[in-house]
Specification:
Blueprint: E1 8-14, H1 19-32, E2 37-42, E3 57-60, H2 69-78, H3 81-87, H4 89-97, E4 102-106, E5 110-112, H5 119-126, E6 128-132, H6 148-153, E7 156-164, H7 168-181, E8 184-185, E9 190-191, H8 194-203, E10 207-208, E11 226-229, E12 232-235, E13 243-245, H9 273-293, H10 312-323, H11 340-349, H12 351-369, H13 371-380, H14 384-394
Parallel strand pairs: 1-2, 1-4, 2-3, 6-10
Antiparallel strand pairs: 4-7, 5-13, 6-7, 8-9, 11-12
């Protein structure tokens, strides 16, 4: 294994409404690895004021990505907050790799429990380090999740990713998809950045981390039981607990570990005291940050310059038309006041395209909901192949 050299940077990406979680992550890093720096990219505002009095914290804006203002606003227009925040990871990685040979991305809703000691050496050896959702086949007795989870959202959980400078080719490839294809689009098998990495892990020989203490989340608690040991926690496998992922966590109800996956401590009683202990500690960190920050603001790109909500369908239609624009031309931005009239005019003209996208999605759903009827329809309708192609092209996701 090559000898690791140089510093390690930790980073995360948030919109302002998720800053309490990012500051909780920072607090956990300060407690466990005070020598490490956390860089927070805020996609919808400038919050460099948060650096004051917080050693080891750096807050940056989208200026760090190396994109023009127009390019950033296009991403904000075509994507919702989750899609936008995940789409820029490759560019953020590349920017930070210019100053550190190892960069570790951590989702803001994570908590560092013990030093991430293995990562620098693994990145030096492999270039790309990923964590799969599961390390073992799931027994049928597990009732809150199945292996089908990976078919929907991807093999790897991209709440964690560590890269080195040898990963630049991978990052460029990843960005080539995420620039316009970082979608939550299960009908076409796409889930933001994660499903693309299933493909890229094969192309670029990514390392699948088998250490059970990394990225422990509600999806894999059945195989990652841990208990207090000394000053930390250890898994039944013997691995030290390194990194917890509180996905779908409500800090006002820490017993409900994940509302999204229906994992609730109250259903297992006192069977997992260590998890109860760390979940309450994490809730305290988030609630403390909430109290300091005050009321959570609305996502900065939720509305256009006129105050109208940008719906998912409008964003999808904007994306489709943007992809069809000739080189060097663009659409009026929903976020620039001087372009509001042109954007309203575009919305009126795009009604047909929005309906077409809806019909395309509905057709895909019908195909799998009524397979027999769909087969009969396909056989009886002349030129069905051309119709199918138009419907699939409506989504403008490469197939």
């Amino acid at each position: 294994m090559p000898e690791p050299t140089g510093k390690v940077l930790y980073c995360t990406v948030v919109a302002q409404n998720y800053l309490p979680q990012a500051l909780a992550l920072y607090a956990s890093i300060q407690e466990i690895e005070p020598d490490k720096e956390l860089v927070i990219l805020v996609v919808d505002g400038d919050r460099r004021d948060l650096e004051q009095g917080r050693p080891g914290l750096r807050v940056v804006t989208t200026e760090v990505l190396g994109l023009s203002e127009r390019q950033v606003l296009e991403l904000a227009a075509i994507y919702d907050v989750v899609e936008f925040s995940t789409s820029v990871k490759p560019l953020f990685f590349k920017a930070l790799l210019e100053e550190a040979p190892t960069v570790v991305y951590l989702d803001p809703d994570m908590m560092v429990v013990s030093p991430l000691a293995e990562l620098e050496g693994l990145v030096a050896e492999h270039g790309i380090v990923l964590t799969p959702h599961f390390l073992q086949p799931i027994e049928r007795s597990v009732d809150h999740i199945t292996e089908g989870h990976d078919l929907t959202v991807g093999i790897f959980n991209l709440g964690f990713c560590a890269v080195g400078r040898s990963a630049v080719q991978f990052l460029d490839w990843w960005w080539s998809h995420l620039e316009r294809e970082c979608l939550i689009y299960p009908l076409l098998g796409v889930f933001v950045d994660q499903k693309w990495v299933d493909v890229g892990a094969n192309f670029f020989d990514a390392h699948s981390l088998r250490h059970g203490g990394y990225n422990v989340g509600p999806w894999n608690l059945h195989e990652r039981r841990f208990q207090a040991e000394g000053s930390g926690y250890a898994l039944d496998s013997g691995d030290d607990l390194r990194l917890l992922h509180f996905s779908g966590f409500d800090p006002s109800d820490p017993e409900a570990i994940s509302v999204r996956l229906s994992v609730d401590l109250r259903e297992v009683g006192d069977d997992f005291p260590a998890l109860r202990e760390v979940s309450r500690k994490y809730a305290g960190l988030v609630n403390s940050a909430r109290g300091m920050l005050g009321a959570s603001p609305e996502y900065g790109f939720a509305r256009d310059a006129d105050g109208g909500v940008l719906t998912k369908r409008t964003r999808r239609t904007y994306r489709k038309h943007l992809l069809g624009m000739p080189m060097g031309r663009t659409l009026p931005s929903p976020f620039i006041g001087s372009e509001s009239a042109r954007f309203r005019a575009w919305k009126r003209r795009a009604i047909g395209a929005r309906i077409g996208l809806t019909i395309g999605d509905a057709s895909l759903a019908v195909k799998y909901s009524f397979p027999d009827e769909f087969a009969v329809f396909k056989a009886r309708v002349p030129g069905f192949g051309a119709i199918r192609k138009r419907l699939l092209d409506a989504g403008r996701v490469r197939r």
